Please model this.
Amino acid sequence: MRALCWHGKEDIRCDRVPDPQIEHPRDAIVKVSSTAICGSDLHLYDGFMPGMKSGDIMGHEFMGEVVEVGSENKKLKVGDRVVVPFTIICGECDQCKRGNFSVCERTNRNRDMADKVFGHTTAGLFGYTHLTGGYPGGQAEYVRVPYADVAPIKISKNGLSDEQVLFLSDIFPTGWQAAVQCDIEPTDTVAIWGAGPVGQMTIRSAILLGAKHVIAIDRLPERLSMARAGGAITIDFEEESVIDRLNDLTDGKGPEKCIDAVGLEAHATATIDSMYDRAKQILMLETDRPHVLREIFYVCRPAGTVSMPGVYGGLLDKIPMGMFMNKGLTLRTGQTHVNRWTDDLLHRIEEGQIDPSFVITHKVSLEDGPRMYKTFRDKKDGCVKVVLKT
Ligand SMILES: NC(=O)c1ccc[n+]([C@@H]2O[C@H](COP(=O)([O-])OP(=O)(O)OC[C@H]3O[C@@H](n4cnc5c(N)ncnc54)[C@H](O)[C@@H]3O)[C@@H](O)[C@H]2O)c1
Ligand SMILES: [Zn+2]
Ligand SMILES: [Zn+2]
Model:
């Protein structure tokens, strides 16, 4: 089959690889119809996440048709149409029972490595480093889905396109969880850094959850206008001071709820802290560039909540914990507990409350994937979200 494989920094190729096989009676094989490139894939493309091996199959947002089912899998049948969450979950461990799916205790087959690095294992993820199980991903014609009797979301209603439901695999529940973790009140101003695909889903979620004002911060005109179309007030961080503008918009008090939908590859206009981060990152003395987090701690209203869907990989330097502690801020974060939210979100799509396909700007073939990684990373050609058709 054809699959997008990682071969090193900025080196993704569309290779011919062996078809996946059923390896366990709970497995299923899914023939992929649509798959997407995520901002998290860019951290692998840019070489910031350790634990990849040459030839690893990329991708963790995918859906398609079940073509083979293991003998113990009572949930799926050949022919079922499914969206597959990026977190692989067992459904039986203590964390799964509590709905903390992204920290499932059983599905990471390299849990010894994860235990050492993080203190405890986290869930296995599709197409995302050997630290999270080294499972082949979904930017391919076929995928083996382990524990396929738990997580896959069956799409039984006719009339929903792939584009409408595909993002249940990741970015829609990710934006939703980011907003829910802020406990939004009707009087709240919610500020969201990053108007990428995750930021866009977060904006819509914060509005659906009843925020008084939603403010989106980015620098790319097409992303800012998409944010405005979704109901947000926008700030271009290259044109104006984010801190001054947020204070102006909140009578000098700062937003109660702040969401970091950027993560470890933050950009900044020549601030001292961002030059320091770049230098340390180049010298391999720091893995992440936490400019957004510092800005958030500074501007967030005292006793406010910070929600962090943006991914960080390793060690962060110069984080003002004194500011964070004395202001009494709360920080909530995590990879998304996808299945905690998907029944509700599928229902909202079916009811027409939201159509997540608004975020798609590019629909191309799998072969075009390597080129689209670069376009998406460089934010060229108005690219916000890429869907690959197999
Ligand atoms: N927690 C999860 O489960 C989960 C799931 C999916 C994605 N993510 C993470 O969410 C983050 C965003 O993903 P995405 O797909 O939207 O990626 P993306 O790269 O398309 O979007 C990031 C956006 O942040 C903007 N940005 C950069 N520096 C900024 C700054 N200083 N201030 C404001 N905006 C800034 C960029 O211009 C870009 O539009 C990534 O870190 C990704 O890994 C997390
Ligand atoms: Zn993702
Ligand atoms: Zn589990």
Q: What stands out?
A: Residues 220 and 318 are 27 Å apart (CA to CA). The first helix runs from residue 39 to 45.
